[in-house]
Design brief:
The protein has about 240 residues and is mainly beta. It has one domain (about 45-240). About 15% of the residues lie in helices and about 40% in strands. The chain has 4 helices and 11 strands. It has helices spanning about 5-20, 20-30, 155-160, 200, and strands spanning about 50-55, 65, 70-75, 75-80, 85-115, 130-155, 165-175, 180-185, 215, 220, 240. The strands form 2 sheets. Strands 1, 2, 5, 6, 7, 8, 9, 10 and 11 form a 9-stranded mixed sheet that branches.
Length: about 240
């Protein structure tokens, strides 16, 4: 091989190596604007904005009776078994998107319940002063405009563990970019930002007996898994 050819190849290799690693990655994984040819459908700039119009409210206003459906079973009309309707915790919010389309948005819900508001306390088996629930609800194919998002807890939860005093919603896109964060708080003094990640609150905060003040629990679900699924269903996007 001639020396001139070797020099040309060496210079070409040096030029490739000089390209920053981030630029090389971006050429492989393009993150274009919504609808960009060849790019992922990720909104940027003003398009990425998600505005929370009406946040989910904590307190007694979140307690709602489920719709009462009646149906026939072997000739008998089935109605409520317990008589008085029981209350669900229903946390609903309204939001607006700016992009023509968003491939997906994930709503990260973080809820804190106060046991002092529990309606059916058991003195023999007291629960922790506060209960923490969380859920990640992912919506897909979100059209530009106004929408609603909602999560629920069944009647046994407010009856035993109390009413919500803190509701935080973090909204992210498909790339994990944080687009909105909002907290409604009746708890008292609360750490700013992502309080559920604070070890001093979630793990180190204990009562005089050394027990955790906050207990992590499960059961927070999207409304599509509840009797409320059929109400104003067109206001909600498809849950993935």
């Amino acid at each position: 091989m001639k020396s001139s050819s070797r020099i040309f190849i060496a210079l070409a290799l040096a030029a490739v190596c000089a390209i920053p690693a981030s630029a090389q990655r971006s050429s492989r994984n393009r993150r274009g604007a919504v609808g960009a040819d060849g790019g992922a459908s990720v909104a940027k700039g003003r398009d990425a904005m998600v505005q929370i119009d009406t946040p989910a409210r904590p307190g007694g206003m979140s307690l709602v009776s489920a719709p009462n459906f009646q149906y026939q079973v072997q000739g008998a009309l089935m109605g409520p078994v317990g008589g008085k309707p029981r209350k669900w915790i229903v946390l609903e919010m309204k939001y607006t998107t700016q992009a023509k389309w968003q491939d997906e948005l994930t709503f990260h819900w973080h809820i804190l319940l106060d046991s002092k508001q529990a309606k059916e306390k058991d003195p023999k088996n007291p629960v922790a002063p506060y209960s923490y629930y969380n859920a990640d609800i992912r919506y897909v194919d979100i059209k530009q405009g106004s929408h609603a998002a909602c999560v629920c807890l069944p009647p046994s939860v407010p009856e035993r563990f109390g009413e919500p005093v803190t509701v935080t919603v973090l909204i992210t896109n498909k790339e994990g970019d944080e687009l909105a964060l909002h907290t409604e708080n009746q708890f008292g003094k609360l750490p700013e930002g992502k309080w559920w990640e604070r070890d001093d609150m979630m793990n180190q905060w204990k009562d005089k007996a050394g027990k955790n003040m906050i207990e992590r629990r499960q059961g927070l679900v999207d409304r599509s898994k509840t009797p409320f699924a059929l109400i104003n269903s067109s206001d909600y996007e498809l849950v993935q």
